[in-house]
Amino acid sequence: MLQEIDHVAIAVYDLDAAVSFYEISLGARVVHREDVSSDGVREVLLRAGSSYVQLLSPLSDNSPVARFLASRGEGLHHVGYRVASCAEALESMRRAGARLIDEAPRPGSRGTTIAFVHPTGAFGTLIELVEEGASSEHSGPGLG
């Protein structure tokens, strides 16, 4: 079911400064930018092999990422795992006793289908399940 790491998401205060840091220090290349109003975030994807580093900044002061930054500061927010079927992976997590944030898969950025699993019961890590969509930018890693 688990195909590979789709992305590692990092919450930042200043998205442009973070992008510049990754471009200058690691030669990273921006491959996608999007405002995801349903999640209250602005995201930038940087290619990292067959995966991505996702930089996130809040669109509003009451978004989940804004609350994360207020309580924990900048840093690792979640890990996205690529799966063949988000619905099947979510059901498997449910059967395993995981605490779900999303009870059903939903649209993510770039035409992906996603669902989040709460860190409680997942060994302290917020998990995002990511299924590539037909309208994704390419056939490689997706992002929710």
Jot down its keywords:
8 strands, 3 helices, single chain, 8-stranded mixed sheet, 2,3-Dihydroxybiphenyl 1,2-Dioxygenase, domain 1
How many helical elements?
3
**Low-pLDDT ranges:** 135-144
How do the strands line up in the largest sheet? 2-3-4-1-5-8-7-6
Characterize the largest beta sheet: strand count, sense, and whether it forms a barrel: 8 strands, mixed
- Please report the total strand number as a whole number: 8
Shape: globular
Measured by DSSP, the beta-strand proportion falls in: 35-45%
Radius of gyration, whole Å: 14 Å
CATH class: Alpha Beta
- Class by alpha and beta content: alpha+beta
Order of helices and strands: EHEEEHEHEEE
Report the CATH architecture: Roll
Binned, the helix content reads 10-25%
- Say which CATH homologous superfamily is assigned: 2,3-Dihydroxybiphenyl 1,2-Dioxygenase, domain 1
Separation, N- and C-terminal Cα atoms? 17 Å
Number of individual domains:
1
The name CATH uses for the topology is 2,3-Dihydroxybiphenyl 1,2-Dioxygenase, domain 1
Nearest-integer average pLDDT: 92
